[in-house]
Amino acid sequence: MRILHLGVYDRNIGDSVALLNARRSWDQIIPNIEWSQKNIESFWARKNDVAYCRKFFLSLSGKVDAILVGGGGLIEDYHGQGTNYKLPFNREILEACPVPVFFHGVGLNVFRGNTGYREEAVQAIQETIDYSSGFSVRNDGSYEKMRDWVGLDTSKVCIIPDPGLLFLDRFNIPEKEELTIGGFQPAINVGKYINENRFLNDSNLETVKNLSIGRLTFPHTIKDAQSFTLNSICTPQEFDLYKKTENLDRFIENYKKIDYIVAMRGHGQLMSIGLNIPGIYLSTQDKVLDFSILNGYEDYNIDIREENWREELDRKIYLLTEKNSELARKWYNLRETNLPTWYQQSNKFIKECLKKTV
Q1: Whether residue 209 sits in one domain with residue 123
Q2: Confidence band (pLDDT; 50, 70, 90) for 221?
Q3: CA 143 – CA 271 distance, rounded (Å)
């Protein structure tokens, strides 16, 4: 089978890992897939022009058997685009596609402070759901946000694990009896508006930066690498190499150096769970908080909007890392319970997609 895989490649660690893990999950179900790839950013350069997108997908006739989109945070209102949102799809474009189009564990991007999606963006997203051959979103509250906040009809939408959770036992980080060496996975954005709503005030930002003291820091974006240099596993220049698909496994190997993590980004949270590294999750955006609530990790989540959040964060870290920690034992048991369900959901979606390619 020949599959064209669309995604945002080599831009940040989390989305790149999600793309790679999604592909490897399909390889587990379908033998001998011939993969090709296209960066969705090439459509953005054309402002998702509908005529251009139709022409491109029509040109795939006889060249591929299916199109796979994602993972990654790809559902988002995106001004100035011909499709009115982030992806190069709507009804008109999907009707021109000569092969089935599947969306694998994509995320709905909603940053704190957002007031809503425009009507024309909602319409295009709904058309994409309705005219796709299979549409799934990641298990971080994306489904609930699509249904309740955006107001979409989600009857055709499946919930599957974010691919960043499923490493297919490639790294096998063992369970630790003592959690002594800490890691920190930070989050900061380029956009001033997003940062203001993420951190709420400058004091919080400075307090967050202090979390890298005494902990190995794992940047997931170039902005992370530039802003959180203390104890970082890489310089900003080295990060440019790590984020490339061919170097991702080298980056992930660094996670073996730590016993626990304080994670802020969605993929910082998800990857560490997938790698079997216990953590405390500092939510400054809803997707971290929502994943925690929806998947049983409430006791491991601290939200920056909480009063005395830093003191509570320190308390949870202490409980996680104390000798014979009940919180750590509960974390390991929770992951062991969740993983079979997550693999089952992912495999079921892929098998259902396969039925539509024959």
Answers
A1: no
A2: very high
A3: 20
Question: What average pLDDT does this structure show over 196-201?
Answer: 93
Burial 285-318 (b: 16+ CB within 10 A, else e): bbbbbbbbeebbbeebbbbbeeeebbeebeebbe
pTM of the predicted model over 0.70: yes
Q: How many domains does the chain have?
A: 2
Asked whether residue 330 is domain-assigned, the answer is yes
Task: Kindly state whether residues 139 and 248 are assigned to the same domain.
Answer: no
Burial class (CB in 10 A: 0-12, 13-18, 19+), 244: middle
Do residues 322 and 346 share a domain?
no
83 touches 53 (CB < 8 A)? yes
Same domain, 220 and 293: yes
Select from 31, 121, 27, 22 the least CA-distant residue to 77: 121
Which pLDDT tens digit goes with each residue over 15-40? 999 999 999 999 999 999 999 999 99
Statement to judge: residues 70 and 81 lie in one domain = yes
| Domain boundaries, position 273 | 182-337
Residue 201: CA count within 13 A, CB half-sphere: 4
